[in-house]
From TrEMBL:
This is Sulfatase N-terminal domain-containing protein. It comes from the Bacteria. InterPro entries: Alkaline_phosphatase_core_sf, Sulfatase_N. Residues 9-88 form the Sulfatase N-terminal domain.
Length: 142
């Protein structure tokens, strides 16, 4: 089970996804950048088959089938939970152009918890609880 070092609560919905889904604990790629390796993972293409020839802000949306477009076509809502410590969400939206049109991108900083570094921001406990609850037992799985 994957656990965030700052998370003390339980996330049964996410835990169920992990138990019944794919978890990439070790992922190796021949792609020279994160952008290209994610493109490979989400499209099934090899790095040399993608239109990404270098690490640039392209703003071009990939037109083929991807993990996201296939899931959306089957009626799933797709969400990406992203940590801005790696790249800002803005950079992700500009560079990672292989997600579905309706995919929602969430910044990990928006999912606040009453522990760890997030607690130091001074947000009210009620606000943190409301945001946390969308990923815990209080939310309902479809």
């Amino acid at each position: 089970m994957l656990r965030n070092q700052y998370w003390s609560g339980h996330t049964p919905n996410i835990d169920k996804l992990v138990e019944n889904g794919s978890v990439f604990r070790k992922y190796y790629t021949g792609a020279p950048s994160t952008v290209m390796s994610n493109m490979c993972m989400f499209t099934g293409l090899y790095a040399h088959e993608s239109e990404l020839s270098r690490y640039v802000l392209s703003g071009i949306h990939y037109q083929g089938e991807t993990l996201w477009t296939k899931a959306e076509a089957k009626g799933y809502e797709c969400h990406i939970i992203w940590d801005e410590a790696w790249h800002s969400v803005f950079k992700m939206e500009e560079r990672y152009y292989c997600y579905g049109e309706n995919t929602k991108i969430h910044n990990l900083k928006e999912i606040r918890q009453g522990v760890g570094a997030h607690y130091l921001h001074g947000d009210s406990l009620n606000e943190m609880t409301v945001r946390r609850n969308m990923f815990t037992k209080q939310s309902k799985m479809k």
